[in-house]
Amino acid sequence: MKINDSNRINGVSKTYQVQNEYRKDDSRKARTKDEVQISQTAQKMLNNSRAEHPERAAYINQLKESVQTGTYHVEAGKIAEKLLPYLK
To answer: Can you tell me the distance from the alpha carbon of 9 to that of 29, in angstroms, rounded to the nearest whole number?
Structure first.
């Protein structure tokens, strides 16, 4: 009694072999990197907004520091109140 047909196994393995060869060819291609370019106008706007609001910059720095030290507390109740209208 013959359990497996040898041609059938070779047919399946050949499919996988071709797929693996295709992947190897893909890895040889040079991969492009994503780039972001910010216009001069946008950079000026960003710098102006930072200069005009020093108290906001101080607040953001305080938040960054508390997050880094692990002392920032998230108030779940406030988040739930803001999300509730969107969920209804």
So the answer is: 31
